[in-house]
Amino acid sequence: MLISQVTHGRPQDRRSDTEEAIYDALEAQGAVFARVDHDPADTMEICGQIETVLGATICKNLFLCNRQQTDFYLLLMPPDKPFKTKFLSGQLGCSRLSFASDEQMETLLHCHPGSASALELFFDREGQIRLVIDRDLAQEQDWCGHPGRSTSTLRMRWEDLLNYVNLTGHSPTYVELPREVE
Predict the structure, then answer these.
(1) Which domains, from first to last, does the chain contain?
(2) What is the pTM of this model?
């Protein structure tokens, strides 16, 4: 897998409209971030290789919805934790969570599976998505995720990410997911 050296700030070459909009929003906020470019990284196994270059853990991002597909959730969690909907549903006060469709992800987050991160909340201007963060992940010093496409990964301080999502109109809900599941 090809992974660039760590650089700082937005890329000099033209990127997708989604990426450009995210970089514009980050710059407007004054966020400081490091970046690596790489081959598509849409699995946690591939992201592990990128983590060694970035020096921080890339979180698992799951785009979920309720049975009626009327409520949407973006869950950020540590990559080494297993995901079981029953542990999350109870804490959110909803039932029967499942993965949202590729089409819903494209419509609401302007990205494809394997590319979702909190950065795409910029596109949820109607507040349809609830940001959910596992407390263990929030204890990390840095956050890492893709800016709209899985061919780049950013690392920034948690405070900068939380400022960014607050400016998009989202405030996180914190949950505690177990490390071990039966």
Answers:
(1) 7-173 (3.90.960.10)
(2) 0.94
